Amino acid sequence: MYKDIATPARTRAILDKYGFSFKKSLGQNFLIDTNILRNIVDHAQLTEESGAIEVGPGIGALTEQLAKRSKKVVAYEIDQRLLPILKETLEPYPHAKIIHQDILKANVKEMLDTEFSDIRDVMLVANLPYYVTTPIIMKILEEKLPLRGIVVMLQKEVAERISAKPGTKEYGSLSIAIQYYTKPEVVMIVPKTVFVPQPNVDSAVIRLTIRETPSVVVINEDFFFQVTRASFAQRRKTILNNLSSQLERGKEKKADIIEALNQANIEPSRRGESLSIEEFAKLSDALYEKFS
Ligand code: SAM
């Protein structure tokens, strides 16, 4: 019986056997601690009837733990050199499937329809490549896929920004975008020592429970996100100054912006970081009437 893939000795043996060298440009920091991996899977709250999607299986450390606790796993891996390795390491788990593709180019919806047609509960679980953490999470959320949620390892600083509350220095348009679609919780802080090679930044695991309906209702979603991004463009500027300098035709419509702020009961001298997501929703709707 083999030891788990993630044990330091087995990981070393696999890497040596294939002469594998890590590519920093692909965010390759592999986990070598089975307890951490089991904890990540615990936080996904899978059952034998669940499905799991993974991004970046590496040599299969997390894929193996997911396969042990779910009905099916589909993992997207961009690095072709890992395919023969995964074929060997995941051989005992025929219900784990690897797709050789960049997740950002993948049609995940179509994959869900074909691979998970008989599974109702699907989670995305991953130790993400840190160079593309935010684009991956936003792609999955914006496509409104029928998932229960996402449990991912990422940079601690990004986890703090995602889960930040109004009035903190971490709060910004990323917090709002993700809290619009999900309820985030930082569930673990992870030391650098559990990876090979060790990353330069601290890590955390975040769970994003997808909401059945977004946290606020807005007339136009794209415009709502434009308004939030504009409001944080320069953090020291007031909301009025950011909106008039950042929104298209903002300068000529300064009087309209002041009126919209009044309608939403927001002092023009406030800063974006002090506004709740509900206030942004009211403001975006008031502005939309004047900008559309
Ligand atoms: N899951 C493994 C573990 O925990 O040990 C490896 C995690 S490592 C942080 C990230 C993995 O994502 C690497 O295997 C890398 O090749 C892969 N990867 C990087 N960019 C990717 C992309 N755009 N699409 C799919 N996989 C990607």
TrEMBL record:
Entry superkingdom: Bacteria
Reactions performed catalytically: adenosine(1518)/adenosine(1519) in 16S rRNA + 4 S-adenosyl-L-methionine = N(6)-dimethyladenosine(1518)/N(6)-dimethyladenosine(1519) in 16S rRNA + 4 S-adenosyl-L-homocysteine + 4 H(+)
Family annotation (Gene3D superfamilies): Ribosomal RNA adenine dimethylase-like, domain 2, Vaccinia Virus protein VP39
GO CC term (a single one): cytosol
Family the UniProt entry places it in: Belongs to the class I-like SAM-binding methyltransferase superfamily. rRNA adenine N(6)-methyltransferase family. RsmA subfamily.
Entry EC no(s): 2.1.1.182
Keywords: Coiled coil, Cytoplasm, Methyltransferase, RNA-binding, rRNA processing, S-adenosyl-L-methionine, Transferase
Protein role: Specifically dimethylates two adjacent adenosines (A1518 and A1519) in the loop of a conserved hairpin near the 3'-end of 16S rRNA in the 30S particle. May play a critical role in biogenesis of 30S subunits.
SUPFAM superfamilies in the record: S-adenosyl-L-methionine-dependent methyltransferases
Leading EC class: transferase
Protein name (Swiss-Prot/TrEMBL): Ribosomal RNA small subunit methyltransferase A
Chain coiled-coil ranges: 240-267
Pfam families, per database record: RrnaAD
Chain positions recorded as S-adenosyl-L-methionine binding sites: N29, L31, G56, E77, D102, N127
Subcellular locations according to the entry: Cytoplasm
Main localisation: cytoplasm
